Amino acid sequence: MGFNYMMRLLFVRSSSTIKTLFSHRPEVNPQRWRGLSGAAMRLVQFHRRGDTRGIRVGVELGEGLNVVDLKAFDPSLPSTMRELLELGDEGLQRAQRALSSGQCVVERSDIQLLSPVLAPEKVVCVGMNYRDHCLEQNAPIPKEPIIFSKFPSAITGPFDNILLPSESQEVDWEVELAFVIGRRGKHIKEEDALSYVAGFTVANDVSARDWQMNRNGKQWLLGKTFDSFCPLGPALVTTDALKDPHNLAIRCLVNGDTVQSSNTDQMIFKTEALVAWVSKFVTLTPGDVVLTGTPPGVGVFRKPPVFLKRGDIVECQIDQIGSIINKVV
User: Fold this and answer.
1) How many whole angstroms separate alpha carbon 223 and alpha carbon 226?
2) Overall pTM surpassing 0.85 (yes/no)
């Protein structure tokens, strides 16, 4: 049931995308949301089926469509997203040229998508950052961002399995908008912050609530950082490809049932504020991932609480970015 359900979702989503891709293209407002390079793209990391060691970076022709292989177009380009971002504007401009060429296109069926970023220096997370999520637990609105982290080893791909650890009986879902840093910075001003952001992606901040809330001195780290507890993807959508990252519908479905449904306009601290805040404490570097918080509907606050079990299919969706679909095993 789980495998067939996942395949049906992928087929329906790809078919729907193809129908709508050419009928509607979101307007770009570069004056307000200008990002790292000014290029509107959907960047992905992938490997060709049968070659699990060969990581490549590509640009989607559209959500769910075929991919331009950047290194095939320009052998001097790096093989990983982090290395591409380290090239700054030059790297993204060269990726844009590859996309515009229409050359070196790989069929979607011949690739497997990976997380848009692998082995970042940091995975920064924000707690209690949706007004409606605070309301569901009768918690006060934070006056400053609540920051915690995951280890980078928690990252897994957009369609990879979530591994249910034997150490926890209370594993929960959290759909989140994530952004990826595109250039190095410290003490970044809020008005300059978006120029440090390469783009946005979908995340699931999978959480072992027993370890987060009751164990380990109630420090959140261990409950947040089991292997596979950070699915990311399907693409890194550059800032200029989004009309407004703070006005996107955001949803989580478990076995086809909607459990979270909100909008990123509920975020208390927006992307610019988070970049400025976090960069007061640490230097942000290309490839760093920031998860921006989750809306209401998580399992732990349901009555009675509901937690993930083996065989469940979790789908996290954000409009204009895409979906990640992960089976719990």
Assistant:
1) 7
2) yes
